[in-house]
Design brief:
heterodimer; A: 79 residues; 0% strand; elongated; B: 441 residues; alpha/beta; Rossmann fold; 6-stranded parallel β-sheet; 13 strands; globular
């Protein structure tokens, strides 16, 4: 996709893109758990937590920090 | 143009006064709904008011051309608005130059997620600042330094408005991508009758006394202690005529400190702190004032709602020469050095206290200037022009943001597949296999 941005704007666009990635990933991870966003399907993660599988799932290396914190939240509310 | 205007309406925040005044004048050029979390002390308005708690999803807001979020550094008043902002892009009106207190309380307390707060600091300012903030949260000796943490108010913004030129560089994080503009606040017009409570005797102000008033929510940055010290430094003929009233609430410790200081300096009978006042009583003090004292240091607000409010009255205003206050012509506001501890304030106050004609001339000059600069109609015109610009820019911004959101699908897809495999695997095992250390988590 070409946006036709000049170099000065491109730098700002890159910053915006990275900021959104850093923030939206976190917000979506949380929103998925409270059912206000459908972007990321975390149902299997929730199922694992509800089944009491937290220690094993936590150890999956591919899970990012957002998912780790989502699990922390899940455990706190009784998952 | 349809606008959803997110704001607190509580009488306990100065932002509500500005915001209602602004929404009202903008409603003459566009259709404006106010969205808020209702509170018992909300200001009343003719505008349609809707409850943030009724937002059920994106579709509740889909009919609006612009969502406008009033964000400030008070988590009690703005956490609900920030929540909506994180899920729905819109124009941010940034009322403060720092959101550090808001972000600390919002993430570490309201969302019980101090790690997220730490991660935000690490992302925007680096690991050292994050580490210091963690120590601070733990009650150790860490200092998050000058980290203003305004950035989280920008990543989902389609445009940003501030109220002073010196705040503009702080929010212009994506130049050419997200429009940012400085628009002066409009006057807040008193919502009570103009003749309400102008009886100075009823307020306890003796004939011949010169009434000095500071107002609004009082914190250390409003420099009330320095003002009291300055009063004690005045020449006797000025000091003996002064009646200083702090009209507004403050922390109990600050009130006690100020009153004790006044007693110690021998002017205890000339200093009064009213505590929180209803609108009508506040108006009585503002309209009776001979001189306003509106000091600020450090200056953390984008502008000053209390100054804008005072400008609608006739008394001259003594300010700190910093931030928004420094944007006025020299012959209007009476400036003092920002970090002055008393002598500079006393030097500014003395001639005003002793010369009624000087007070009248400076007050009238300031008010005439303010009437032009902060005209409500001018504000409405500039804000609607800005929203038009945001609209024109939206296609480019949406394209850039779509790229960012595309990236989000990468990690969750990997996570989803991996977790599904692991869950299936674990389901096939015996219960004892998924219990570690004898405890079920």
């Amino acid at each position: 996709m070409t946006l036709g941005l000049d170099s000065s704007v491109r730098e700002a666009a890159q910053r915006r893109l990275l900021d959104r990635y850093a923030n939206l990933a976190e917000e979506n991870a949380r929103a998925a758990f409270v059912g206000t966003s459908g972007r990321a399907d975390w149902k299997t993660v929730v199922a694992g937590g509800v089944l009491g599988l937290w220690p094993r799932v936590k150890a999956i290396p591919v899970l990012g920090s957002a998912a780790h914190r989502a699990f922390t939240w899940l455990r706190r509310v009784g998952g | 143009m349809r606008i959803a205007w997110f704001t607190p309406l509580s009488a306990h925040t100065g932002i509500a006064k500005y915001s209602l005044s602004a929404a009202l004048v903008v409603s003459r050029l566009a259709e404006v709904d106010v969205w808020t979390t209702p509170r018992p002390d909300d200001y009343w308005t003719d505008l349609t008011v809707r409850d943030i708690g009724d937002i059920r999803g994106v579709e509740s807001l889909a009919d609006y051309d612009h969502l406008v979020y009033n964000l400030g550094n008070n988590p009690d008043m703005h956490a609900d608005i920030f929540d909506v902002y994180t899920r729905n892009p819109g124009v941010v009106i940034a009322h403060d130059k720092t959101m550090a207190h808001f972000m600390r309380v919002y993430y570490a307390v309201l969302r019980s997620d101090p790690r997220r707060y730490r991660d935000l600091l690490a992302y925007y300012y680096g690991a050292e600042v994050a580490s210091q903030a963690s120590r601070q949260l733990l009650g150790l000796d860490g200092q998050a330094g000058d980290a203003a943490l305004l950035e989280p108010c920008l990543w989902n913004a389609t445009g940003v408005v501030v109220h002073s030129e010196d705040a503009l560089p702080l929010v212009d994080r994506y130049p050419g991508v997200v429009p940012a503009s400085c628009i002066d606040m409009p006057f807040f017009l008193p919502g009570v009758a103009a003749d309400a409570g102008q009886d100075r005797a009823a307020l306890g102000v003796a004939a011949g006394e010169v009434l000095l008033v500071s107002h609004g929510r009082i914190g250390d940055s409003k420099r009330v202690e320095q003002t009291v010290r300055a009063l004690s430094m005045l020449p006797a003929e000025a000091r003996d005529r002064v009646h200083f009233v702090v009209a507004g609430g403050a922390h109990a410790a600050l009130i006690e400190r100020v009153l004790a200081q006044a007693r110690r300096l021998g002017i205890g009978d000339r200093v009064r702190i009213t505590g929180f006042l209803p609108e009508r009583d506040m108006h009585a003090w503002l309209s009776a004032a001979d001189i306003f004292v509106n000091l600020r240091y450090p200056s953390t607000e984008s502008a000053s709602g209390s100054l804008i409010e005072q400008l609608a009255y006739s008394a001259p205003i003594v300010v700190s020469d910093v931030g928004f206050y420094a944007s006025f012509p020299k012959d209007t506001l009476v400036r003092t050095p920002p970090s002055d501890e008393g002598q500079g304030i006393a030097s500014a106050l003395a001639p005003l206290i002793l010369d009624e004609g000087l007070r009248r001339r400076v007050g009238e000059r300031t008010r005439a200037y303010a009437a032009r600069r902060f005209a409500p109609a001018l504000y409405a015109e500039r804000l609607v022009d800005f929203l038009d610009r945001v609209g024109e820019n939206r296609a480019q911004l949406d394209a850039i943001d779509a790229l960012g959101e595309g990236l989000l699908d990468v990690a969750p897809d990997r996570v989803r597949a991996e977790v599904a495999n692991r869950v299936d695997l674990l389901r096939s095992r015996r219960t004892s296999d998924v219990i570690e250390g004898g405890s079920v988590l």
